[in-house]
UniProtKB/TrEMBL annotation:
Keywords: Signal
InterPro entries per record: SusD-like_2 (IPR041662), TPR-like_helical_dom_sf (IPR011990)
Protein name, entry field: Starch-binding associating with outer membrane
Coiled coil: none
Taxonomic lineage from the root: Bacteria, Pseudomonadati, Bacteroidota, Sphingobacteriia, Sphingobacteriales
Length: 477
C-alpha cells in the first residue's frame, strides 16, 4: 500500500434497479467503478476526511482557534468578534456525518461480513472520536439514530448519553481488537499496528472519562480504573501519538492550503504574552518573526478587533502562526502523548488514581517541549520556574494553562479543555458582540432547522437556546 493509496478519496455510487433483464443489468455496469467498497479505501478516506475537517476553516481557523486565543485575525475579523450565521458551521457538521461517519459505518458492516474484527474495532474507535468532536462542539447531537438509513429525521441524544455511549463503544472496540486476526490496510495513522490502535482507544476513553468527571466523578473514576487495568496500556512514547501526516500538494495539510492564498491570520496576543511571561522556548515555533523589524520580535494581535483596527497594526508588523503549523507536511494531531500525560496527571489530582500528579504534569510539559525540539537544559530551566511549578491546591490552573499551551493549534481539543478546566482565564474579544462573553458552543447548522425540525426543536428545548453562549452539560461553571 503506497502513501498515495492511503489518502485516496473513495466515491461510491450504488445503483438500485428493479425487475431488470440480465442484459440491461450488464449494460448499466460501470467497468471502471468498484461495486463493493474496499475496507482499506474506506478507512483511509474516513481518516483523511475527518482530519481535514478537524483542521478546516469552519471548525478551527475561524472558530475554535480564535475562541481559545491561539490565533487571531488581522482581516475579515467577524469570526474573531463572534459574528456567525446558522450556515457558519454547516460544512463541518455535514462532513463529519456524511463522509467520515458514513465511511466508518460502512467499514463496520464490511468487517462484520468479512470476519475481520480489527477493521471493526478501528472503525468503532475512530467513530467514537468523530462523535466526540461533534458533541464537544454542539452539545446534544444525533447519535443513536444518526447512521440508520431508515431514520431520515434522527433524534438528538443528550450530551450525557452521547459520552456514555462513546465510552461503551470504545470498551467494545478494545474487546474486539485482536493481534492474531487478519491484518488491516489503508491505515495512515499506525500502519496497521493493532497494539498502537488499542493504546489510542484507551487514551481516547480516558479523555472522555475526564469530560464527564465534573458531572459523574464515580463513573469517570471507574472508567479510568478500567483503562489503567487494560493490558494494552496508554501512550508511552511520542511515536504512539495518533496523527495523520500530510504530504505535498495536492495532499497537503488543509491549513497550508489556505495559507497559499490568504494572509488574514496572526498569532493571538494572548498566546504571545503568556509565552513571553514564562520565557517559553516554544514561542519561536508557535510564531514567526514580524516581516518588518519591530522592537518586539514576536507581535500578536488582540482577539476580536474590528477589521480597521486590526489592519492598522500592520500586516508586516505582526506575527503569523509559525511555519511548523502552516507547512504542507504539518500533521493533523488527533491525540498526543503529551495530552495523555496531562490527562493522567489530572486523574491523579482528582484522586482517581494513585499516580503522582506533579510528576505526570512535568512529563507532559517535557514531552511537549521535546516535540518542538527544545533541548534538555532549556527544559530543566523552564520547569524550575515558580510560575510553571505544579500547584496541587489548584490543579485545574496548573494543568489547564500548560495543556492550553501544549494543545496549540489543536483548536477543537483546546476549546473543549478550556471550557472544562476554566483555565487560562481569557478575556473576551475586544469588539465582541456577546456582551463580554466568549462562545461556549457552536450553533447548529440551519439545515437542521429546515430538514430535521422536530428533532432540532426538541434538542434545543432540552439543552437551551441555540446560541453561542449556551453552556453545555460537560462544562460545569
Amino acid at each position: 500500500m503506497t502513501n498515495k493509496k492511503y489518502i485516496i478519496a473513495l466515491t461510491l455510487s450504488v445503483l438500485s434497479l428493479s425487475a431488470c433483464k440480465k442484459d440491461l443489468q450488464d449494460t448499466n455496469k460501470n467497468p471502471n467503478e468498484a461495486e463493493t467498497a474496499q475496507p482499506d479505501y474506506l478507512l483511509a478516506n474516513a481518516i483523511k476526511s475527518a482530519s481535514d475537517n478537524y483542521y478546516s476553516t469552519s471548525n478551527t481557523m475561524d472558530a475554535s482557534l480564535l475562541f481559545v486565543q491561539h490565533w487571531s485575525k488581522i482581516q475579515y475579523t467577524d469570526a474573531d468578534r463572534y459574528i456567525f450565521t446558522n450556515s457558519s458551521f454547516e460544512g463541518g457538521w455535514k462532513s463529519y456525518y456524511t463522509q467520515s461517519l458514513g465511511d466508518l459505518n460502512a467499514l463496520i458492516a464490511i468487517a462484520d461480513k468479512s470476519g475481520n474484527p480489527n477493521y471493526k474495532a478501528v472503525a468503532l474507535t475512530l467513530r467514537s472520536w468523530v462523535f466526540s468532536l461533534l458533541t464537544d462542539a454542539y452539545g446534544n447531537i444525533p447519535y443513536s439514530d444518526a447512521l440508520d438509513i431508515n431514520k431520515l429525521n434522527p433524534t438528538y441524544d443528550d450530551q450525557r448519553a452521547v459520552y456514555l455511549g462513546l465510552i461503551a463503544d470504545l470498551k467494545t472496540a478494545l474487546s474486539t481488537y485482536t493481534t492474531t486476526g487478519n491484518a488491516i490496510a489503508g491505515d495512515p495513522i499506525f500502519t496497521g499496528n493493532i497494539n498502537r490502535w488499542r493504546k489510542f482507544a484507551n487514551a481516547l476513553r480516558f479523555r472522555l472519562a475526564l469530560r464527564i468527571a465534573d458531572r459523574e466523578p464515580v463513573l469517570a473514576q471507574q472508567v479510568i480504573t478500567e483503562v489503567l487495568a487494560d493490558p494494552a496500556g496508554l501512550l508511552a512514547e511520542e511515536a504512539e501519538t495518533a496523527k495523520l501526516t500530510y504530504f505535498t500538494s495536492p495532499n497537503q495539510n488543509p491549513i497550508a492550503k489556505i495559507f497559499e492564498t490568504r494572509d488574514d491570520y496572526r498569532i493571538s496576543k494572548t498566546t504571545v504574552d503568556k509565552l513571553k511571561s514564562l520565557s517559553d522556548p516554544r514561542l519561536p515555533v508557535f510564531a514567526n518573526k514580524t516581516a518588518t523589524a519591530t522592537p518586539e520580535v514576536y507581535v500578536g494581535i488582540p482577539n476580536g478587533l474590528t477589521t480597521g483596527d486590526a489592519a492598522n497594526l500592520g500586516f508586516a508588523k505582526t506575527s503569523k502562526p509559525g511555519d511548523f503549523f502552516t507547512k504542507a507536511t504539518a500533521p493533523a494531531i488527533i491525540l498526543s502523548y503529551s495530552e495523555s500525560l496531562f490527562d493522567r496527571a489530572e486523574a491523579a489530582a482528582r484522586g482517581f488514581t494513585t499516580e503522582n500528579a506533579a510528576s505526570l504534569y512535568q512529563r507532559g510539559i517535557t514531552v511537549s517541549l521535546q516535540y518542538y525540539g527544545v533541548d534538555a537544559t532549556a527544559i530543566q530551566t523552564y520547569l524550575a520556574q515558580p510560575a510553571v511549578a505544579y500547584d496541587a491546591t489548584n490543579f485545574k490552573k496548573s494543568i489547564g494553562e500548560q495543556k492550553w499551551i501544549a494543545l496549540f493549534g489543536q483548536g477543537l481539543e483546546a476549546y473543549a479543555e478550556w471550557r472544562r478546566l476554566d483555565y487560562p482565564q481569557l478575556q473576551p474579544a475586544v469588539a465582541g458582540v456577546l456582551d463580554g462573553k466568549i462562545p461556549l458552543r457552536f450553533i447548529y447548522p440551519g439545515s437542521e432547522q429546515s430538514l430535521n425540525k422536530n428533532s432540532y426543536s426538541a434538542a434545543v428545548a432540552k439543552q437551551g437556546a441555540d446560541v453561542l453562549t449556551t453552556r453545555l452539560w460537560f462544562d460545569v461553571n
